[in-house]
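User: My instructor asked us to take a sequence, write out its structure as tokens, and then describe one feature of it. I'm not sure where to start. Here is the sequence I was given:
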Amino acid sequence: MDLPLSAASPPPRGDGFVLRPWRPSDLDSLLAHADDEQVSRGLSDRFPSPYTRADGEAFLSGQVIDPAAALFAIEIDGRACGGISAQPGRDERVHSAELGYWLGRSRWGSGLMTQVVAAFVPWAMREMSLYRLFATVYDHNPASARVLSKNGFIEEGVQRCAVVKRGQVHDLRVFARVRRSLNDAT
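Assistant: Let's start with the prediction itself. The structure tokens for your sequence are:
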């Protein structure tokens, strides 16, 4: 059984990967990729380290991410190796969403996440009726900043001293991709 899918049309596919809803059967693959200190260092503390079986079960049962999010596993060769999501805003920010993504370290450096973001972003903006999709990147994560830049995100600024992660104060770089009309191509 797949976890609920909040968007109307199927998620996009790419060359060598599929975006699809997370499944309870993804637990072992999730643990194999998520239980890595190097993966979690660039993510919010909602993504714990170590990443335990209980953490994986909580995530796969929908207890970690708001169910309104467009949330997908990145599948390669039949196994989940990362994830991508767009968390919608509320009230007057309903046409804005926060992009989040991660990838197991064994897949780093291949350009895969750039391709995943390229497939996901236009789909998310269209399906979620977004004018703005933004992401924040820790100051020590230039690879993630490059993924966004290569996909048309503009760096808007820096939130100085915004996060304390593992006892260190970090700035957050803010990137966004926008459109002025819902009819604009994304």
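For the description part of your assignment, you could build on this observation: Strands lie at 13-14, 17-20, 70-76, 79-88, 96-103, 132-138, 154-165, 168-178. Try explaining in your own words what that tells you about the chain.
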